[in-house]
Amino acid sequence: MAKRKLIPVFLPQGGCRQHCIYCNQKGITGETSLPSEYDLWDMIPKKTDETWELAYYGGTFTSLPRSVMLRYLEFGQKLRRKGRIGSIRISTHPAYLDQEKISLLRRYGVSTVELGVQSMDDFVLEKAGRDHGKGEIIHSITLLKDAGFTVGIQLMTGLPGQTPNSIFQGIRELLPLRPDMVRIYPLLVLEGTPLAEMWRHGIYEPQTLVDAVSLVGDMFAVFCHYGIPVIRMGLQPTEELNFDSNFLLDGPFHPSFGYLVKSYLKRKQMEMLLERHKGDVRFLAFRNDLPLLFGDKRSNLRFFEQERRCAVSEAMLSRGDIALAPFDKRERSNVLSILREKEFFALYLERLPYWSELCI
After folding, report:
1. Could you tell me if 153 and 232 lie in one domain?
2. Which structural domain, as residue segments, surrounds residue 110?
3. What's the pLDDT tens digit per position in 176-194?
4. Which of 212, 233, 297, 345 has CB 3.0 to 4.6 Å from 225, enough for a Cys bridge?
């Protein structure tokens, strides 16, 4: 899938007919109203071409009043005709898609639709204030895939009533639908939401950062094993979304959450390699993977150095693969063992209790 440069346009809760217990898009984005066409032109970089994509986020696009939806689609069509963008992307809710709306999106050049799935557990969806169930999710993804759209899904962790088993049962049901990409967001407690009141009254307790990193890492491994890219993990920090503001109250927020997840999995991959060897070692990896092997504040190396001397060096390896060599830098060409990323994900899933049990 060719990566496009995105022009994000936020429609803060535009078209949302329900009020999810966790959502405050106006607080996250700092935007309080829908952008006008004048605002839209102001958001477009001066030099763009057909490698760019206009992306409408933060609301339920297909539930906007028809006149508003058409205004945004026509703006995107103008840009496409001028060669300023190549396509349009929208995000929407599974309950507000039908054949007529899908045909409309196609006609105006929308190529990617991201669906707010959040969970495949009807009980969890109801507690979260979502006005749809698993059936609508399956139906919407099927309609979109049949119509030739690129389909993204957004999932959450830490929802009230949610368990690892329900998450991975849901993933097992999503895999046959072949979504093209996934975003995973751990639930945060934001001011101005029903969830904030639940938190204040002790009814809801958010995930810890450690637990969220571990669980999202497990989910990431499953999707990667099945060839489905995870394009984002954790919300992007903004002026409003950080622990220095009064808006973010609690939850597993980190400005580099995705890095923590990938680094956590690299530690697991390194652990598997060390099962095969004793003594001091040197890990070898592709240059861009080295920060993941070191870990946040060198946490991965410090973890292994409790029992042995360890080092990390660059090597001519494929992205994601890790090799093991003697600790002595002069002997690093003497590779002791190598664990390919593809093999690692397969082994990791075999050891994942709530995944392997579902696959029996």
Report:
1. yes
2. 5-255
3. 999 999 999 999 999 989 9
4. 345
